[in-house]
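Q: What structure does this chain adopt?
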Amino acid sequence: MSYQDKTIQCRDCGQDFAFTASEQQFFAEKGFTNEPKRCSACRRAKRGSTSSAQGAQRDW
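A:
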């Protein structure tokens, strides 16, 4: 299958980001069916806040 770069708007910050052909191919190989909803900066921030929140809940 042939992939082309797509421009997607981040659901968190509203900035446009590129979903490149190579990223699309990677997603397809992994079996992911949904396109990303967040830019890489917002994904990192969300992942960091989720990890911190989970860690805080586990520390007694």
